[in-house]
Amino acid sequence: MTPLIEIDRVAKRFGPVTALEGVSLGIAAGEFFALLGPSGCGKTTLLRILAGIETPTAGRVRIDGQDMTGVPPNRRPTNMVFQSYAIFPHLSVAENVGYGLRYQGVRGAAAAARVEEALAMVQMRGLGGRAAHQLSGGQRQRVALARALVLRPKVLLLDEPLSALDKKLREEMQVELRALQAGLGITFVFVTHDQDEALALSDRIAVMEGGRILQTDTPEGLYLRPSDARVAGFFGTMNLIPGTVTDPGGPGPAELDGGPFGRLRGLPGPGLAAGAAAVAAVRPERLRIGGAPGAGANRLAARVSARTFLGDRSLVHLRAAADGRALVALVAHAGGAAAPPEPGAEVTLWWEAASGLILSA
Questions:
Q1: Is residue 233 part of a domain?
Q2: What is the mean pLDDT of the segment spanning 158-180?
Q3: Which of 68, 111, 161, 329 has the fewest CB atoms nearer than 10 Å to its CB?
Q4: Are 355 and 286 contacting, i.e. CB atoms less than 8 angstroms apart?
Q5: Is the pLDDT of residue 336 over 80?
């Protein structure tokens, strides 16, 4: 099936600075898609190219089969919600939401009906007469969404629209935004630097760095099967131990010479080759403290440096005996589990080969 959005080898340069380099991507109709990465990775530039605000230096963008080269923003089947919301303070809520309709030639009762429909979508029915300066942060975000949705775009582009909200409201709006997208069935392309936000909202995520896409996958795929150490380290907390590949694996686990950590085994990541620099990678919830390691499990000695209580579980911060490397284990409290060790305790950490990865460095 042809994707609704096709990004074909897109590059963007601002003078000597390369913001995007050879980005290719397909986004399906009805998909909630996130562009995730640190500041300066090119994600907002790519979003602005989709909107028509920026022109690519090379490559092409097609939306619903139409080449967008030379198509201005107001002629594209897209609309954009900016990080700042850009609400006009001198206009009412209804006037803000209906602002773009006049340029589509929609006026009078037809425009009023469209505005009320858009406000109902974002749970602001009946608030069209309220002044913009009387709105809370969450309400301003909803007005920005309604103003974009009232034009009935095929693709809604969102540039970190929740970043200005406090933590509690941001989490509430994540739930509302996901429900809104599912109910409307239109394509959302969402830019964020927040890994948890991308996990909570997205059907698929493209992880970006340095103007390139490192990996595109579902949230589960990125968390459980990162393509390399960069994605593993960026996407959630990951314990990483460097070394050299001694066995790239295949039908069985790969093996890494971890120097002072000894031989470490894990499921092989893509592109491993014997002799190559790599890392053993294990998530905190897969790392075990004490108990009886199984045959073939990875083991290392460490000292507990601190504990962080999180209600039903604790984060245990440790220092590896081999080189003082910081490590993190997640210990659950449920089911009568033993309390995690106190700071200063000497412990043995272990994890099964099938619970970790060997990834390219």
A1: no
A2: 85
A3: 111
A4: yes
A5: no
The DSSP code for 337 is P
User: Smallest Cα–Cα separation from 32: which of 167, 219, 267, 169?
Assistant: 219
Q: What is the mean pLDDT of residues 287-315?
A: 90
Give the domain range for residue 296: 238-360
Q: What is the pLDDT of residues 348-359, one digit of tens each?
A: 999 999 999 999
- Is residue 53 within 8 Å of residue 79, measured between CB atoms? no
Do 169 and 51 lie in one domain? The reply is yes
- Helix ranges (H only) for 37-92 are 43-51
pLDDT tens, residue by residue, 286-296 = 999 988 888 88
DSSP string of 137-171, one letter each residue = HHHHHHHHHHHHHTT--SEEEEESTTTTS-HHHHH
Whole-angstrom Cα distance, residue 283 to residue 225? Answer: 11
**Contact call for residues 352 and 265 (beta carbons, < 8 A):** no
List of residues 6+ apart from 69 with CB closer than 8 A: 60, 61
Phi/psi for 233 (5° steps) reads -75, -30
**Distance separating alpha carbons of residues 298 and 268, to the nearest angstrom:** 15
Map tokens 């209600």 to a residue: 311
Predicted model pTM = 0.88
In a domain, 286, yes or no: yes
Average pLDDT over residues 247-255: 90
Question: Rounded distance, CA 176 to CA 12, Å?
Answer: 34
With respect to residue 187, please indicate whether it lies within any of the assigned structural domains.
yes
Instruction: Copy the structure tokens of residue 279.
Output: 């890392």
Strand partners, 241: 280
Reduced to 3 states (helix: H, G, I; strand: E, B; else coil), residue 1 is coil
User: Per DSSP, what are the bridge partners of residue 189?
Assistant: 33, 157
48 and 177, same domain (yes or no)? yes
